[in-house]
Known about the structure:
One of its GO terms (molecular function) is hydrolase activity. InterPro entries: AB_hydrolase_fold (IPR029058), BD-FAE-like_dom (IPR049492), GDXG_lipolytic_enzyme (IPR050300). By secondary structure, this protein is α/β, with parallel strands linked by helices. 37% of the residues lie in helices and 15% in strands. The chain has helices at 11-15, 33-36, 45-48, 50-63, 113-116, 118-126, 146-160, 162-165, 179-187, 214-222, 226-240, 246-250, 278-290, 318-330, and strands at residues 68-70, 87-91, 97-103, 130-135, 167-177, 204-208, 265-270, 295-300. Strands 1-2-4-3-5-6-7-8 form an eight-stranded mixed β-sheet, sandwiched between helices. Strand 5 (167-177), helix 9 and strand 6 (204-208) form a beta-alpha-beta unit.
Amino acid sequence: MFESVTVDTTIGELCTKKELEPFSKYFFTNMTEDVWNRKIGDYGNERCGLLPAIKRIYEVMEVKSQIIYDVYPNEEWDTEPDKEQVKLIHMPGDPDKPFVLVCPGGGYAREWVLVEGYPIAEQLNRMGYSAFILIYRTGQKKLLPKPLNDIAAALKFLADHKNEFQIRMEGYAMAGFSAGGHLAAVWGIKEKGYEAYGLNKPAALFLGYPSISTVQFLKDMERATDSERAAAVKYLERIGGEHFTKEDLAEYSVEYHMDQDYPPCYLVHSKDDPVVNIEASCVMQERLKQFNIMNRVRFMEQGGHSFGLGNGTELDGWLADAVRFWERCGNFN
């Protein structure tokens, strides 16, 4: 049971606990051996709120017989096998409220659900809101727009089952981190996101250290070390394809596609982020001001990347602040 989970428990040990077997693929997707062998504490237990999040999983399992849902019908898996990857993990809050769709990051290669999924959901549940963690398609070159299709399919699935989940579709929010923040930010572009799929605009976006500017990422790659450049190339190939150009990347570089219809935005980032240059968030901040979009932008000096909830940092409590921002934007409380 939960009491046997500590900061010294390895990710592999967590995944092989019998009661957590359904979640074994969904702590870190596309698991690699180095992740499997690392301890929970290595991922910033206190800063990211990992043990409370795992405890919340146990609590939900006690009251719900099903937590993980297929987004696409099984018959679609035959023609598009990668659709089998796409799941929704339901972490319930109070009934008859809007919900938050959470998109963890992972460079479009995987999803760090333990760091940027369950802890976010656990905190939202404490505030009375249901959270649905989206496991979207990853690990392919020129991946987009498949993850956008996955968001659309997930929202349609939720609309079809809103009574079962006891949620309101009106006023939903989206939270995304790193590459998941890029994905959520692209969903806010009406020509590529919500409007293109015939769906409602989110009432707010919560974006944590989002890689919103693929063009900025390209600039940073050109002056990076060899090892950093190799990782950046793989990331950009997942967006623009194997022989990507600046023009390919600009198609999904959020700052080029924003307008006055962009959703209200709550943006957090650290100035010392070694993975996603804060300059991208500064550009987004300028665009939000330019188009007079409701926003709250919070930067901190030191926090690095993947700080999640940011407990004990300058941004401690940012998610509760973001929820208050969402409530004002959605005017539903």
